[in-house]
């Protein structure tokens, strides 16, 4: 596979160090997101942004074809992937079932609390 600067790739976080996150892109290429490419703000702990085993999106900053290494960034893209099951779809009823059930649940909980107090 050939990668170019600016490509947005899917990768798996395979390691985290104090200076960056290691990303596996495919069977050939690996990459590093340097701590300065994690966020436009101060990053105290990289694990506040990514976790090992997580699949994320990364932007290619540089390609080392000889060593099969990519310099990557996540600070200017929405790097968190949508879960594989897809987007959550709206239903026709929306919040109406919750609206109907909420008063019932409140009455039941209040009754439960009153019974505990009486004991």
Average per-residue pLDDT, rounded, comes to: 89
Task: List how many beta strands DSSP finds.
Answer: 5
| Secondary-structure element order, N to C | EEEEEH
CA gyration radius, whole angstroms = 23 Å
Give the structural class. alpha+beta
Largest sheet: 5 strands, mixed, barrel
Distance between the termini: 70 Å
The coarse overall form would be elongated
The poorly predicted ranges are none
Number of helices: 1
How is the quaternary structure best described?
A: single chain
Percent helix range: 10-25%
Strand content: 25-35%
Strand arrangement, largest sheet?
1-2-3-5-4
Q: In summary, what is this structure?
A:
By secondary structure, the protein is of the alpha+beta class.
């Amino acid at each position: 596979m050939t990668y170019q600067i600016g490509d947005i790739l899917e990768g798996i976080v395979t390691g985290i160090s104090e200076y960056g996150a290691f990303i596996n892109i495919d069977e050939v290429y690996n990459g590093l997101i340097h701590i300065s490419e994690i966020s436009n703000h101060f990053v105290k702990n990289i694990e506040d942004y990514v976790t090992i085993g997580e699949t994320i999106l990364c932007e290619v900053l540089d390609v080392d074809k000889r060593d099969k290494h990519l310099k990557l960034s996540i600070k200017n893209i929405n790097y968190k992937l949508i879960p594989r099951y897809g987007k959550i779809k709206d239903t026709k009823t929306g919040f109406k079932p919750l609206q109907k059930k909420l008063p019932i649940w409140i009455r039941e909980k209040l009754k439960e609390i009153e019974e505990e107090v009486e004991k």
